[in-house]
Amino acid sequence: MHDLTTPIELRRPALIHYGSGTLEKLADWVAASGYKAPFVVADPVNAARLSVLGLGEVGCFGTVVPEPDSDNLAAAVAAAGGADLVIGFGGGSAMDLAKLVAVMVGQPLGLAEISGPNRAPARKVGLVQIPTTAGTGSEVGTRALVTDPATNSKIATESPHMLADLAIIDPDLTMSVPAHVTAATGVDAMAHCAEAFTSKRAHPLIDGYALQGIELVGRYLRRAVENGDDTEARAGLSLAAFYGGICLGPVNTTAGHALSYPLGTRYKLPHGIANALIFPHVLAANAEAQPEKTALIAKALGFEAGSEAAIREGATAFCAALGLDMRLRAHGVAEDDLGSMAEEAHAIRRLLDWNPRDLSVGEIEEIYRRAY
Length: 372
Hints:
alpha/beta; six-stranded parallel β-sheet
């Protein structure tokens, strides 16, 4: 745990527009910045509504897939040739690919040459991020993840050159998100905050963002799931996702995300659902190492922190009340895979080394079995 005297670096986009209707500011910013060839990276749903960007005819790679792999990235980079501005328009997958496209387009570099920390080159194009879900917070971060299809493992790339010039967080864009996606992405935003809040490298500068993000999810997520037209709830979740994104840069996640990754790479579970399935179990497992902060998380989510079992039950009930089936087996996970998944998760040291409690392969497998 860090204290007030510990140095820390916090990066954010130079310009952030937050609030209802702020998407209208995009066209003027593009024109004022002198960009002539914007290129949008989007999933098929958002590729079908490019007109809301107000940019007229623009180039688009519109086939971003959930949990994108390096092949999906290569196709996006090839399609973006000639662009002078890359716009990520969608959820975390689209925005992560947009970051990588922005540093790779026009430069003879493959993913292997830029992956890892601080290896990506300076961008030759502009970068804008526009989230359409309230979950990943990728719009304000410097990190991107894609899957290596050969190994089914996540490849992380992190660089200040992948930080957007402009992020537009317009909650109106999330109004059409279905209830089950709202639930999953909201839990993802909360998990970013909770894991950063309890991390070994938690910092007072970030703790405030983290706790506020958790509190916003506790206050607004169920409302947004039950009524997708609740504008205040949608705005609250967009703000929570933004706070979670701030947490990711200087602190990042821990065991919850490490254990969720095999569910995405092996079973293609959406990232938010994978995090929701794991969240109660890791929160409970870490409670003894972080009792005071765990109590604050529990209070924000509407239950009392007591025993490890009580914490697990309270967090599971919070997620289940959103309509999420909290059993791994209900999502097609094979029991025979739990052991190898535990080994795979245990190897993600960039996250697990910062978990407040050291977890062995056997303890990780036990968490999977409790979630099964």
